[in-house]
Amino acid sequence: MKGVEMIASIRRSALAVGMLMSLMSGTALADPTTFSVNPGAIGVAGPTVPNVNYVDFSYVSLVNQTATNGAGTFNEQGAGFFSSYRFPTLSDVVPNSGINTNYQLYGVFTGSGTVAPTIGTPGGQTATFSNFSLRLFVDIWDGRSSHPDGPRVHRKRRWIG
After folding, report:
1. Beta strand 54-68 with 35-37: parallel, antiparallel or unpaired?
2. Tens digit of pLDDT for each residue in 29-83?
3. Angle made by CA atoms 121, 125, 127, in degrees to the nearest 5
4. How far, in Å, CA of 44 to CA of 137, rounded?
5. What is the Rg, in whole angstroms, of the alpha carbon atoms belonging to the chain?
6. Three-state SS sequence of 113-157
């Protein structure tokens, strides 16, 4: 049951992170949800991280937008690479969490929707997603590869959500 709980927790968090990766707007966000990460639930070495509010990431995406007078449709696809867990604020890195030491976590996403001029913001655009899909993967370090800066992943990939 713990594995299911971890995957459900990661899926909920990753969906939020994925939406943030795609939207990246200046809109105020609701208070973050606190969740736990238990790598052992999917067979990854590393400590359980009891409190996480944020996941730091970098991402790249390709957006194809068709619009006339600022209104139209878009399709987006990309990938995000998660680098650290944060708690209780975005600036507080959770130490010794195991991410990027024992495993790497990333997601690939696609989405589409409509785009329209933002009312009251000259030159602004508002994108509204009609669908969004996020697949999470974990690359597990299995001890067979090494690097001067520390352990690196040795192609033991698992899809987790």
Report:
1. unpaired
2. 457 788 888 888 877 777 888 889 888 989 999 999 998 888 999 999 999 999 9
3. 135
4. 12
5. 18
6. EEEEECCCCCCCEEEEEEEEEEEEEEEECCCCCCCCCCCCCCCCE
Cα-based angle 8, 159, 2 (whole degrees, multiple of 5): 35
CA distance 12 to 28: 19
The bridge status of strand 103-117 relative to strand 35-37 is unpaired
Q: Do residues 25 and 8 touch, judged by C-beta distance below 8 A?
A: no
Q: Which residue, chain included where needed, has tokens 């090494």?
A: 146
Q: Specify which residues 71 forms β-bridges with.
A: 68
% of the chain residues with pLDDT over 90: 37
In the chain, where are the structural domains located?
2-159
Of 93, 82, 96, the C-alpha closest to 137 is: 82
Output the six-digit token pair for 53.
């509010």
Q: In Å, how far are 30, 104, 146 from 79, measured between CA atoms?
A: 24, 13, 25
The reply to whether the predicted model has a pTM over 0.70 is: no
Q: Distance between CA atoms of 33 and 54, rounded to whole angstroms?
A: 8
Vertex 128 angle, CA 126 and 134, to 5°: 125
